[in-house]
Design brief:
Helix content is about 75%, strand content about 0%. It is mostly helical and about 130 residues long. Helix 2 packs parallel to helix 6. The longest helix has about 35 residues.
Length: about 130
């Protein structure tokens, strides 16, 4: 099942952490390339706080998912709205059968790729800003 047959929320959800790290690493790389070395500390502090907030939210969400046997975004959304949770879907079966290490590895790769892409974007923006000034 690809993003054309799923809802837009289901396509975006797996990439949220990667997008956050893309933005944070782009900003840090831009500051470093622009020569704002002293300003990297506040960005690193903000990134650390954002990471802690995301981890707390992640732990809370995973506990809720485990307690109520929720694996897909649609199931979590239906549960949070108080609607009947439909567990008999192809996507739900696939996620329930997947090994936990595969899910963790997939998320880890997305975060690393987001950080790399963000760093590249930030350095590119910094280099462009230096050339234009």
């Amino acid at each position: 099942m690809n993003c054309k047959t799923r809802s837009s929320e289901a396509c975006i959800k797996p990439f949220v952490s990667a997008i956050v790290f893309l933005g944070l690493s782009a900003w840090a790389a831009f500051q470093f390339e622009w020569g704002w070395g002293a300003h990297i500390a506040p960005t690193a502090a903000f990134a650390a706080v954002a990471l802690v907030v995301m981890l707390v939210a992640f732990v809370y969400m995973e506990r809720m998912k485990k307690q109520h046997d929720l694996v897909t975004y649609r199931e979590v959304l239906a549960f949070s709205r108080g609607e009947q949770v439909e567990r008999d879907t192809l996507e739900g079966h696939r996620e329930r059968e997947m090994n936990p290490w595969v899910k963790g590895a997939r998320s880890g790769v997305q975060i690393i790729l987001g950080a790399i892409a963000g760093g590249m974007v930030g350095v590119g923006i910094g280099m462009l800003a230096k050339m234009l000034s």
